[in-house]
Design a protein that fits this description.
The protein contains four helices and 17 strands. By secondary structure, it is α/β, with parallel strands linked by helices.
């Protein structure tokens, strides 16, 4: 029997895994419930703060705007401060490391996950995930996308609507 730790290890290693594994579905459902709590406009500040802390246990000093979504939360790591504006999506199937002083503008998508080119494998639910590293004092402009394996160096301002790939900042 495949356990959640087995699937998690495969996912973190960047190997191919099945996205609809029961263990992953349970973890994504938990994250969805916490995102729902965070996104409720009528909750008091303490309920929201507690939900953010549960969803992002490895992130410190985080401000989150409206309509935030992520797949797991536990793969988002930041020592803060971190500002996440509105309509931000983080597909954290692998680690998303954010430096101090990061600002994520409206409509940004950060995706560690990718899918196979082969149609049958895609339909079967296979995925692969690669970590993303974002340095200190980085601003991700509105509606930009950060793709699997990308590294963004310290003190970078990513322009709005830019697509950042693993090779964007390669030397």
């Amino acid at each position: 029997m495949i356990t959640s730790s087995d699937v998690w290890r495969v996912m973190q290693n960047g190997d191919w895994y099945l996205a609809h594994s029961p263990a992953l579905l349970t973890l994504r459902e938990r994250a969805a419930q916490l995102c729902w709590l965070i996104n409720q406009p009528n909750h008091n500040k303490q309920v929201r703060k507690d939900a953010i802390q549960q969803l992002l246990p490895h992130a410190v000093n985080v401000e989150i705007g409206e309509r935030f979504a992520c797949d797991f939360g536990v793969n988002i790591v930041c020592n803060g401060p971190l500002i996440i504006k509105n309509n931000v999506v983080i597909l954290d199937h692998n680690t998303v490391t954010l430096g101090a002083g990061v600002v994520i503008e409206d409509g940004v998508v950060i995706a560690t996950v990718t899918h196979p080119i082969e149609e049958q494998k895609r339909k079967a639910g296979w995925q692969q995930a690669h970590a993303i590293h974002i340095g200190n004092n980085v601003t991700l402009g509105a509606r930009c996308s950060v793709l699997p394996g990308a590294t963004i160096p310290d003190d970078t301002q990513v322009l709005p609507e830019t697509v950042v790939t693993a090779s964007t900042f390669a030397i």
